[in-house]
Amino acid sequence: MIRIGIDVGGTFTDIVAVAEDGTVTFAKATSTPQDPSIGVMDAVNRLAEEMAVDVPALLAQTERVVHGTTVATNALLERKGAKVGLLTTEGHRDVLEMREGLKDERYNMRLAAPDALVPRHLRLGVAERMRAEGVVHAPLDLTSLDAAIDTLKAAEVTSVAVCYLHSYKNSTHEKATRTRLEERMPGVSISLSSEVFPEIKEYERVSTTVVNAYVRPIVGRYLHKLGERLKDTGYDGPVLIILSHGGVAPIDEAVRLAAATVLSGPAGGVAGARHGAALIGAENLVPFDMGGTSTDISMIVDGEPALSTTRGIAGQRIALQSLDIASIASGGGSIASVDSGGILRVGPESAGAMPGPACYGNGGTEVAVTDASVVLGFLNPANFLGGRATLDQAAAEAALDRLAGRLSVERAEAAEGVHRVINTHMAEGIRLVSVRRGVDPRRFALLSFGGAAGIHITDIARQLEVRRVVVPRTAAVLSAWGMLATDLRYEVSRTHVGDTGSLEAEEVRTIYAEMEQEGRRRLADAFDGPVTVRHSADMRYGEQIYEIDVPLDGIDFARTDLMAEVATRFHARHEELFTYSLPDQDAVLVNARLATIGEFAELAARALSRRAGRGCLPGQSADLSWRLAGGAGLQP
Q1: Helices vs strands, H then E, count in the chain
Q2: Which residue, among 448, 419, 438, 48, has the nearest Cα to 287 in the 3D structure?
Q3: Cα–Cα distance between 185 and 152 in angstroms, integer?
Q4: Measured between alpha carbons, how far is 196 from 498 in angstroms, rounded to an integer?
Q5: Does residue 353 contact residue 11 with C-beta atoms inside 8 Å?
Q6: Taking the CB of residue 263, how many other CB atoms lie within 10 A of it?
Q7: Cβ atoms of residues 391 and 363 within 8 Å
């Protein structure tokens, strides 16, 4: 039996098969943005060719498929999601637009606020009110609700977000609203805040729920279509989707919580980097994923990737737990241009998959980073995609000549300038990500993967004064490979505000026990193997307005001094993050968190099959080894 991982990128769709003995075979196909499932099936066909079998035979011996998708990300970036209506508590329709009263660039007086995903005329107040403690203050007014539904029907919305005040404490009104919507608008997609993000903080909750409603229909259509296409070609096993927190979930769960797929693709790369770090015994890494359109940067500290609840994309806040990944618009397809002052710039515009860089021969005329790599001799035009494609060196040279003319330099100087600019962008991105966390990047190793990272990594390491780089032989498809090293994971959270000095240990034990029961129940629908449970909490000091994540694993929840131990963990975590703690101040628990993890068998690693050699980058041999280079060994 084999496992298959599939990662859809902006330019290429990567696919990897790992057999029980660790044999790895991989392939690439061109991504098809108009319908990503077409590119996925093309990749499946390519993989079958590499393994010298037909597609039905390949899928018949496949025990599971793990997939990373950019559908939700692209829908947000391109504003091509569903037509959404928002039902909220009367008087609170503008929370989505008021945000938190802050701007991304708070001193930029000309910065326009990002457009809300729901226009104001489709944000409707409903007469109802729940108190903060979960007690009904005003019952749900069905007349008011029906009037709002009539407006949504007339506007022909296809998805509805429901976010009532304090529904994280009592979801009765939201559930009653769903029943009414199902009766009066059959077939409409419905997202309840009490199910998507049942936590305190009004803006975060409504924004996350609206994002879920916005991307859910398109994510559902794509994933169900992909599942059907795989089934039609002979596959009857599970299709698992990697989520933003780095775990995987079945299609139905991924569709229900579609907002959690926004970082689906990059999460696979972090999973692969984490697994690779364990293989080589390197616990502190900066994974650096350079693809066709962007570069994703993250951190692995002491063998674990960082998580965040403050992620945003395209100006929209998504407060679900996700891997802390920073994306910058620097990729192999980033376009070089000369501004009005004669300054060379690279990006953020990208040539994408079509027409792509000039050297692709698809009609592109602008210089992309890949064109500069061809001119500088870093890419072998005759061995692109393992020999499946040939790059047009003449077209790359012609494009560089035009750029060089605008800069009044020679062709090689222009190509070198493109590399210097893009490398400086990426080095600065890595520096910001690491320094922001109080980490000196010189103490870490850089791990490069993605189709283009290996060409740039040593120059970036020199700029950062990093003396070690890790280059996996499977760098070009590491995200797809890493997806196979993930586990089933369900996140459950519950808001329960109180300081540790006054909270009763028994009520906290009950909360975590109920969350564990819910997580295990969800896990049991798709998994019957060993389960691990991880506990954590969002906590702060009494006067603070933000919380930090505090791991609670290893605590005996039966101990009588449970809350004192939780407070001790918080003080230690605060000290670790900010170099100080205030043990004399109250520690406040805000959100209880729990993850139930279904552990798959460990991903085996051994030499690649000879057939997989066709998928290697130029100059790479066909095995799965990882190379750790010392400072003296940094060579381009």
Answers
A1: 17, 30
A2: 448
A3: 9
A4: 23
A5: yes
A6: 28
A7: no
Q: What is the pLDDT of residue 386?
A: 65
436 token code pair? 């922001």
In this structure, which amino acid lies at residue 365? T
Strand 239-242 relative to strand 62-68: parallel, antiparallel, unpaired?
Answer: parallel
Q: Can you say how many angstroms the Cα of residue 578 is from the centroid of all Cα atoms in its chain?
A: 26
Q: How many Cβ atoms are within 10 Å of 443's Cβ, its own excluded?
A: 11
Residues contacting residue 524 through CB under 8 Å, at least 6 positions apart: none
User: What are the CA-CA distances from residue 110 to residues 96, 106, 114, 115, 549 (Å)?
Assistant: 20, 10, 12, 15, 34
Q: Name the average pLDDT for the chain.
A: 85
- Give the Cα separation of 68 and 566 in Å (integer): 36
pLDDT of residue 539: 95
Q: What's phi and psi for 427, nearest 5 deg?
A: -60, -40
CATH number, span 488-598: 3.30.1490
Look at residue 613 in the predicted model and tell me its pLDDT. Answer: 37
For tokens 């945003």, the residue is 312
Residue 176, pLDDT score: 97
User: How far is residue 377's CA from residue 380's CA, in Å, rounded to a whole number?
Assistant: 7
Give the position of tokens 């806040």.
Answer: 317
DSSP calls for 1-44: -EEEEEEE-SSEEEEEEEETT--EEEEEEE--TT-HHHHHHHHH
What whole-number distance in Å separates Cα of residue 30 and Cα of residue 147?
48
- Which residues is 13 bridged to in the sheet? 8, 29
Report the pLDDT value the prediction gives residue 603, as an integer from 0 to 100.
Answer: 67
> Are 363 and 373 contacting, i.e. CB atoms less than 8 angstroms apart?
no
Q: Which residues of the chain have pLDDT under 70?
A: 10, 353, 385-387, 603-636
- Say what the pLDDT of residue 503 is: 92
